[in-house]
Every structure is written in C-alpha cells, then in structure tokens.
Amino acid sequence: MKKIPAAVCATAVTCGALVAVAAPASATTLVNCVGTTTVDFSPAITDTSRTVAVSGADVATLCLSLTNPGLTGFNGPFSGTATQSCTTFFGGGSGTETLYWNDGTTSTWNYTNSFSNVNGTKIGTSTGTLSAGTLAGSSVTQTITFANLDLTACSTTGLSRISGTDTWTITG
C-alpha cells in the first residue's frame, strides 16, 4: 500500500477548495407558478396553411416565492398573426409578453419557444429573460402541456382553440 505524503494531501484539499470557490453559484429560484395557457385561432386552423389571428392568455393561478411572497399569480394576454395549419401550429417562434402580477406590478419577457411531441401530447418550452418590470434580469422557463387535442377537427370544422397546463420557473 502506498502512502501519500501529507503535503500532497494538503495541496489537493487546497486546490479543491479553490475550484469550489471559483465555480459559479447556481441560479436561485425566485418564483414557481402553475396555471393554464389558452390559444385561440381565427379563423380556425385546418390542414391548409393560412394567415390567422392568434390570441390567448397565460394565467398563473398559483405562484410561490420565498423572495417575493406577494407574487401569487399573474395574467399574460397575448395576440398576433401567424401563418398556421394543424401540421405547423407547433413550430418554434419568439415574442414578447407582459405578465400582469396580482400585486399590480408587471414583468415583460422576451421568449423563444419550441415544441415536441411526446406520445401524442404536445409539449412546449419557452425560455427567455424578464427585460423590464418586477424581477427584471431574471431568467424564465415555461413548460406547456397540450394534451387531448382534437386534431380530427383539422380536416372538418377546423381547430379554433387549444388549452393546456403549464409551469413557470423564474430564476435569478
């Protein structure tokens, strides 16, 4: 069995401590929320791609925060136009949204989103940064689950509304 000199062990411990001090601190979770997202298409989207009005809202019905306990929910309405069809409405994109907090303050965030299909369920992930207002500079991750979509409507009357559950994590 080899013996390791005490000086080498002391150096290894010191070097390990330097690495630990130099490593970046992990982000602190500032707010966690759960809620719903509803999206309306007008006219309803079908299998044929066309420009439609898109509107809806992200509504956080329960937010918890140790650092900002007064933030317990928000409403984030959105609207715009997009070229959509039932086969393309889950494409990636980007935008800006204002969150209207329950305490009367607002946060504006710039996001980029992407979607995936997991066993027939569409999962959306939006990430970005709060650019203004409450918690400005913080990072945001929103995950939306659109389950039980009536995609058969795409070939008949069209799909005019989708909704799903979502979670939000704001870190700083």
What would your notes on this structure say?
The structure is a single chain. By secondary structure, the chain is mostly beta strands. It is 10% helix and 58% strand. An eight-stranded antiparallel beta barrel has the order 1-2-3-4-5-6-7-8. The N terminus is likely disordered.
Sum this structure up briefly.
The protein is mainly beta and about 170 residues long. It is built from 1 helix and 8 strands, in the order αββββββββ. Strand 5 and strand 6 form a beta hairpin.
Which key features would you list for this structure?
single chain, 172 residues, mainly beta, 8 strands
**Could you give the order of strands across the largest sheet?**
1-2-3-4-5-6-7-8
Q: Uncertain segments of ≥5 residues (pLDDT<50)?
A: 1-24
Main sheet specs? 8 strands, antiparallel, barrel
The total count of helices amounts to 1
Mean model confidence by pLDDT: 84
Instruction: Determine the structural class based on helices, strands and strand pairing.
Output: mainly beta
Give helix % range.
Answer: under 10%
The radius of gyration computed from the alpha-carbon positions, rounded to a whole number of angstroms, is 22 Å
Strand content: over 45%
Instruction: Give the termini distance in whole angstroms.
Output: 49 Å
